[in-house]
Amino acid sequence: MNAQKAELEQTRQLLASSVARLYWEWQTQAAAREVLAQIKHEQDNIIGADRELYQHGITSSVEGVETDINANKTEEQLAEVNGKMKAVEARLVALTNSSSVTLTRHELPTVDAALPPTLGYELLARRPDLQEAHWYIEASMSEVEAARAAFYPDVNLMAFLQQDALHLSDLFRASAQQMGVTARLTLPIFDSGRLNASLDIAQAQNNLSVANYNKAGVEAVNQVARTASEVETLTAKNRHQQQVEKDAARVVALAQARFSAGIVAGLAGQ
Predict the structure, then answer these.
(1) Which SS3 state, helix, strand or coil, does residue 248 take?
(2) Which terminus of the chain has a smaller tally of CB atoms within 10 A, N or C?
């Protein structure tokens, strides 16, 4: 019963984590789409300015080709992001058993945290999959004990109170067993082959449960290690991306300053 409860809780946790992961994946793709839309808007402005300069004979038609290529690449990225968002929405519909989902764009939370230097193995005890494996071990151990107990006859001495000429030496004699005693006396030793087989099966199931538990523990540790590595990688990428964003902002600010000072217009006039 406990193992089944743990298995049910594991299923619930897996479903909840899958929904949460898909939701934040959608939010991430929505943020990427917003950035790409801004880039596309700026690229369109540049293309429009290049065409205007070309029409006035200031620049040649070749100078705007690279901008057109970049704009097409941005459109391709936008289409890819939209496809990913639709795929996530379809998976959410399937997981939540709903006819449709309506998601709203939210700002991604600012995460400023690092992994602790140590993670104790005891934290894995909270995982439902390991709890399930643990309960299956206990259940299999109970089956082993039950199979061992079947080797010993269960004799109810009160069953002999109403019997005639019955002595302890007659208990295991087939000729002395009476109908009233047979219902209360079991002699499993006479069926040792079946009992040995039952014990072997119970022990094999117990060994299998222990092996599954150990395997689940190793997989849990590997999963934590992989997740921790992914978190560290994403943290490093995030720092790098923030630096790129700062550098890009400086370039934009410099270009705006040059434009305000008339440097860009002067170069275009030449």
Answers:
(1) helix
(2) C
